[in-house]
Structure formats: structure tokens, C-alpha cells
């Protein structure tokens, strides 16, 4: 196996007027390592390389990036999955402002997450111990609660690229449904009311880029469809 | 909640429903037209004019015209709010589209009930 050609998006706002792509050569010694491991090896060649990482096992959601055109977590993506013709192109998550190299400003993403009020709301009297759920009620949260907010889905969504200030995006909407589907939450009506304008939810065109890239295998498009069903049965 | 005053139904939910229902009507109308043309290979003016002189066909056609008007407005409004970032340009585009839809709709009514 020859050395791997890695092309990385570089931008340091303090020294560069425009971003550029930097070429690196990497000898993986024939091992199928994760993209994050490759990045760590590159950082030893050039310590000015900036990227986010923490748990290195797909739990923290820090190292979301665009690898050969597809968003994903570098720590759980083996080279064999993304490298084509011995070439790998790494770019920051699309559509968000770049702070430096592969580090993006997630502000607008978190703002949309905040807009769906991602916490349990219940106006009934608090029980002494805890609010109980039946196994069936708890089952409804499967495929929703696992989201780690890595932003791979929202930054793969053209609707989010064009209107990140108005469209909640797949990650936020998956969480919106997580609380709509929760038997313990009583703010269903208010939650639905905030989503019925033409942008917050309905800017979703159902192209399912979010489903294609989600490193946790979740399905935001289905959650959006469920919210639409709830809105429709509420309003017709 | 995002405020909007230029979309058709003032709500994303109603726009979404209008888009789906109008699409179904347009699909039925299109299939009907294709079938009609297939079953009348040597179509002449008298037969064509006879079809459109019947009240049900005029109602069906007007329903299709109104559907296409609503469908086009919801669709093009969405396109304009996606891609036209400058408010003045966006409003100008929306005005032109709205005017065109209005003209075509009135013209369609005139064709259906005209001489």
C-alpha cells in the first residue's frame, strides 16, 4: 500500500486572508485506522492543525467533519470507508462559519436546539419519587434520545444551509419530537404551535441527507414526519 | 416561531397541505388529459370544443387551474425564500410571480367560459 494523500482545509483568520487546501502524505503502514487517528498523525507533522476531539469513540460528538464529501465523526469512520483512489479530503462541517481549520462555530446550531426547549416540561404536581413511564411509553423515545448533537445531519441539510436562522434543522427537530413523544411532557400544544410556521419545521423537503449521514443511525426525517402528523391531526 | 406574511396560507402547515392536495388534483387532471388524448387519436376542433363546453369539464379545469396557481405560489415562494437573500429582490420576484399567476388564472377563466 502506497502512502495516503490527505488534503485538508486550512484557515487561520489571524494569518490567512482566504482558506486553502494543504496536502499531506501519510504512511498508514497498511493499517485501516480511523480518520481521527490519521489526523493525530498529521498533527505531529504540523502542530498548527486545529480540530475538535474528545472521547474518540463516537460518544461526545466533537469531531464531526466532512470526509471526502460526506459528514461523519472522524473517530468512528475507518479510512477504508471514505478513502477513494488513495485520496482523502477533509473539510469542516459545511454551512457553519469556520473559526479555524476544521473547527466551526456551532452557535446557530445550538440556538436552534435551544429554540425547541430541549427539557421536560410538566405543569402537574411533582410526585414524591419520580414520574413513572410504562415500558411502551419509554420505547417511544428509542431512536430519539441517542442524539449526541454532533451537527453532522443539520450541516448536511440544504434547507439548513439556506436558512440556518429560521429552519430548526434535523438535529433540533429530532429533539423536538423526543419531547413531543415523551409521556411525561405536558407542553405538547405549545411545542407544536412553535413549529407550524413555514420555516421552523416545514422547510424540510424530505431529501433525507440527515438520515444518510447520522453516525448514530438515527432518522430525523421520520421524526419530522411524526411531528407533521401531530400538527395535522391537531389542526384538521 | 418565524413570522411570515407573504406565504399563501400564513402557516407552514396549511401551505404543506395545500401543496399536497393541489398536487393530487393536478395528477388526476394530467392523467385524465393524457388518457383523453390517447382515446381520441384523430381529435378535431368540434370534439375538443365539445369537451370543454360541458359544465363538469369546466369545473374540473377551473379546479386544476386554481390548484396550479396555489401550487406554483407555494413552490416559488419557497424557492425565493431559500435563494434570494436580499429582501428587495425577493419581494420583487414574489410580486412578478404573483402577478403572472393572477394573469394566467383570469386568462384561464376567460378561455373556459369565453366564446
UniProtKB/TrEMBL annotation, chain A:
It catalyses: a quinone + succinate = fumarate + a quinol. Residues 137-167 form the 4Fe-4S ferredoxin-type domain. GO terms for biological process: respiratory electron transport chain; tricarboxylic acid cycle. Its cofactor is [4Fe-4S] cluster; [3Fe-4S] cluster; [2Fe-2S] cluster. Signal peptide: none annotated. It is an enzyme of class 1 (oxidoreductase). Pathway: Carbohydrate metabolism; tricarboxylic acid cycle; fumarate from succinate (bacterial route): step 1/1. GO terms for molecular function: 2 iron, 2 sulfur cluster binding; 3 iron, 4 sulfur cluster binding; 4 iron, 4 sulfur cluster binding; electron transfer activity; metal ion binding; succinate dehydrogenase (quinone) activity. Two distinct, membrane-bound, FAD-containing enzymes are responsible for the catalysis of fumarate and succinate interconversion; the fumarate reductase is used in anaerobic growth, and the succinate dehydrogenase is used in aerobic growth. This is Succinate dehydrogenase iron-sulfur subunit. It comes from Chromohalobacter japonicus.
Automatic annotation (TrEMBL), chain B:
The chain crosses the membrane at residues 21-39, 59-79, 91-113. Membrane-anchoring subunit of succinate dehydrogenase (SDH). The keyword Cell membrane applies. It comes from the Bacteria. NCBIfam families: succ_dehyd_anc (TIGR02968). It is a multi-pass membrane protein. It comes from Chromohalobacter sarecensis. PANTHER family: SUCCINATE DEHYDROGENASE HYDROPHOBIC MEMBRANE ANCHOR SUBUNIT (PTHR38689:SF1). It is found in: Cell inner membrane. Signal peptide: none annotated. Its cofactor is heme. Pathway: Carbohydrate metabolism; tricarboxylic acid cycle. InterPro entries: SQR/QFR_C/D, Succ_DH_anchor, SuccDH_FuR_B_TM-su. This is Succinate dehydrogenase hydrophobic membrane anchor subunit. Keywords: Cell inner membrane, Cell membrane, Electron transport, Heme, Iron, Membrane, Metal-binding, Transmembrane, Transmembrane helix, Transport, Tricarboxylic acid cycle.
Amino acid at each position: 500500500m502506497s502512502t495516503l494523500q490527505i488534503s485538508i482545509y486550512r484557515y487561520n483568520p489571524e494569518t490567512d486572508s482566504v482558506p486553502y487546501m494543504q496536502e499531506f502524505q501519510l504512511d498508514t503502514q497498511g493499517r485501516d485506522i480511523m480518520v481521527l487517528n490519521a489526523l493525530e498523525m498529521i498533527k505531529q507533522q504540523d502542530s498548527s492543525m486545529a480540530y475538535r476531539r474528545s472521547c474518540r469513540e463516537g460518544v461526545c460528538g466533537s469531531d464531526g467533519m466532512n470526509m471526502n464529501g460526506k459528514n461523519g465523526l472522524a473517530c468512528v469512520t475507518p479510512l477504508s470507508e471514505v478513502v477513494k483512489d488513495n485520496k482523502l479530503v477533509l473539510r469542516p462541517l459545511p454551512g457553519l462559519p469556520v473559526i479555524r481549520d476544521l473547527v466551526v462555530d456551532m452557535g446557530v446550531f445550538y440556538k436552534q436546539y435551544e429554540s425547541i426547549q430541549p427539557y421536560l416540561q410538566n405543569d402537574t404536581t411533582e410526585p414524591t419519587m419520580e414520574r413513572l413511564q410504562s415500558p411502551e411509553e419509554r420505547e417511544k423515545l428509542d431512536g430519539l434520545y441517542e442524539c449526541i448533537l454532533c451537527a453532522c445531519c443539520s450541516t448536511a441539510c440544504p434547507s439548513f444551509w439556506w436558512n440556518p436562522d429560521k429552519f430548526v434543522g434535523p438535529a433540533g427537530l429530532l429533539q423536538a419530537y423526543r419531547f413531543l413523544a415523551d409521556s411525561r411532557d405536558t407542553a405538547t400544544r405549545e411545542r407544536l404551535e412553535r413549529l407550524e410556521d413555514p420555516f421552523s419545521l416545514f422547510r424540510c423537503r424530505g431529501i433525507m441527507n440527515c438520515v444518510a449521514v447520522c453516525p448514530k443511525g438515527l432518522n430525523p426525517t421520520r421524526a419530522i414526519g411524526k411531528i407533521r402528523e401531530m400538527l395535522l391531526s391537531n389542526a384538521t | 416561531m418565524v413570522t411570515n406574511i407573504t406565504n399563501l396560507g400564513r402557516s407552514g402547515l396549511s401551505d404543506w397541505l395545500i401543496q399536497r392536495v393541489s398536487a393530487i388534483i393536478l395528477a388526476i387532471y394530467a392523467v385524465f388529459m393524457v388518457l383523453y388524448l390517447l382515446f381520441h387519436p384523430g381529435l378535431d376542433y368540434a370534439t375538443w370544443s365539445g369537451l370543454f363546453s360541458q359544465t363538469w369539464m369546466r369545473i374540473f379545469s377551473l379546479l386544476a387551474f386554481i390548484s396550479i396557481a396555489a401550487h406554483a405560489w407555494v413552490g416559488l415562494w419557497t424557492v425565493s425564500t431559500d435563494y434570494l437573500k436580499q429582501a428587495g429582490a425577493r419581494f420583487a420576484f414574489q410580486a412578478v410571480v404573483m402577478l403572472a399567476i393572477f394573469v394566467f388564472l383570469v386568462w384561464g377563466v376567460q378561455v373556459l367560459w369565453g366564446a
